[in-house]
């Protein structure tokens, strides 16, 4: 019987030996995994209310120049049991069709740019800060080039 198996399956003894050799090696390998989980403190943004910035009903697109109708973005962040620590936040939204870095409005050629410390802050990007000192933002109207 042994002779027939070797004739029909030449090299099967070597394959079996290699398979068992691999299993023996894997069984003796030690893997050590260390995981550190850093959970953010529970924070509440703006008392769970919407953050609204009003530009009024009298917007004149001919005056939009990057400073026209500039408004502060007033918000709060309260974190329970939070040490003074490095944190990050992100203002998320849908980008305007003419500029994906500014918030879309209900007017196709009009958007809202966010400024942090006077510099443009693209939406959907991280902002680093040290709690409890919050970054200050301003919102300003922007328009598609060529719009009057």
TrEMBL record:
| GO biological-process terms attached to the record | cell adhesion
Signal in keyword set: yes
Keywords tagged on the record: Signal
Residue stretches in coiled coil: none
Kindly indicate where the leader peptide sits in this chain: 1-26
Q: Does the keyword Signal apply?
A: yes
Q: Which residues form the Fimbrial-type adhesion domain?
A: 32-124
Domain of life according to the entry = Bacteria
Name of the protein in question: Putative minor fimbrial subunit StfE
Phylogenetic placement of the source organism: Bacteria, Pseudomonadati, Pseudomonadota, Gammaproteobacteria, Enterobacterales
